[in-house]
Amino acid sequence: MLASATISIDRASKRFALAGSSEGVLALSELSLEIAPGEFVAILGPSGCGKSTLLRLVASLDQPSGGSVSIGGAAPGLVSGRHALGVAFQDHALLPWLSIHDNIALPFRIAGRRVDEAAIARLIELVGLARFATARPRQLSGGMRQRASIARALVLDPEVLLLDEPFGALDAVTRRQMNVELQRIWSERQITTMLITHSVDEALFLADRVVVMSGRPGRIVREVTVPFARPRAPAVMRSEAFHHLVDDLTAALEMPDPDSSPSAG
Amino acid sequence: MSAGRWNVLLGALGIALFLVLWEVIGRLGLGGISWPPLSAVLEMLADDSKWALFQRALAATLQETALGYIWGTAAGLGLATVAHLVPPLRRGSDRLAAVLNSVPSIALGPIFLVLLSRDSTPAAVSSIHVFFIVFVSVSSGLQRATPAHRDLFAVLGADRLKRFRRLELPAALPALASGLRLAWPAALIGAIIGEWFGASRGIGILIINAMQNFQIVLLWCAVLLAVGASLLFYGLLTLLERGAYARFG
């Protein structure tokens, strides 16, 4: 098993070209963030604040326009090249022509490694899909598909786990249930994790640290270390301290944007 | 009655009406001398003494069509794949395919006649038709993978070949199946046109001969055989297409 790695984001900026504008749009402005090995950090922010852009930089899907991003000291592209990134998106991105088992086996095939059947069976069991290993994604509910996509993200024992609103498309009840499950799954292997979300509850329940971003250009406006001990029972969400933190973070999210005028950036 | 059954019934009624009209117009001579009644055509098709002729012609045409279909599919699939994997070739191959398609096949016939033998011309014309349809459908099919799937493969560190084999090719199979369905009638037309340049036998030859000797009923027999061969395989390929969409769509 590979050791969990540090994610270092050092004054990263991202500018997108925009027709009719010589400057383009500044999606991220000199953002710095370090996620320690084995730490679970949730990035919270309104839509359009650049939090997905941040994840795409770490996932090697985009290059920063300024500053740097590294995983365990290496460029994200290298880490992805050695098949050490785990990722789950809001779109489950399961291949419709493969069974759940084969979807979870896909990272082995892409990496050109022998398919570790024992590891797959363990993960399918862990995410509660043992009875559905031979089913196709379209036969499963939205929540089950997301569980399969999380199992796929974990199957190669990645150095870091990147979750981009994995439960964003689910209903509130399923979402809460999935949070409880992800917490249980994550406690088993404590991988360095970056979760993008716009749900305050989800961030507080899952993460060791919550980072609040504000948009245009995206930057960090607040950081909170989550005090609750692990493993966390769903009852944590009903505690006084939890409610207090929810109010605190919701207020930070709703802070007026000081420079949201069109000339900003 | 469900909408589906209603549609089938309406379709059957339409076909029956068409056949009855054909027969009536032929019997009454309303369509002139070149419009025989359907029963006369069917009678000749069922005639044992003519069957050897029909069988030979149909076998020759089907063989040419199959050959053109296979070669055209291989060429279309091959060029679309190469162009997809080697991006600098994309624009050039698109143009080549468009130019080939814009040349009427009737104009290509004499060239094939010079380059190839008389009996290979039908398959060659047929393969040109098939090539274009398969090339276009596979080229667009290879673009069908969703952005989320492409992102996933990029993060998992897939190289271009792995992405092609595990993502783009399976995602392109429904489009390929649609192309294969559309290509069959085009292949048959190509073979029949190709035969007009002097092949020794085939449905196209039967058509020409019947026309020149004013054997109207025989001419209609040849046309019905061509239509039957076209529809039969078109139907089978439609089933294949449905399967591809159900599995890979």
The residue ranges of chain A in which pLDDT falls below 50 over 5 or more consecutive positions are: 260-265
Question: By CATH's scheme, which homologous superfamily of the domain at 1-84 and 162-171 and 191-265 in chain A applies?
Answer: P-loop containing nucleotide triphosphate hydrolases
- The CATH homologous superfamily name of chain B equals MetI-like
Q: Per CATH, which architecture of the domain at 1-84 and 162-171 and 191-265 in chain A? A: 3-Layer(aba) Sandwich
Q: What is the fold named in CATH at topology level of chain B?
A: MetI-like fold
Order of helices and strands of chain B: HHHHHHHHHH
Largest sheet of chain B: none
- CA-atom Rg of chain B in angstroms: 22 Å
CATH fold naming of the domain at 1-84 and 162-171 and 191-265 in chain A: Rossmann fold
Q: Output the helix-strand order of chain A.
A: EEEHEHEHHHEHEHEEH
Radius of gyration of chain A: 19 Å
Q: Count of DSSP helices of chain A? A: 8
Mean pLDDT of chain B equals 92
Proportion of residues in helical segments of chain A? 25-40%
At the first level of CATH, the class of chain B is Mainly Alpha
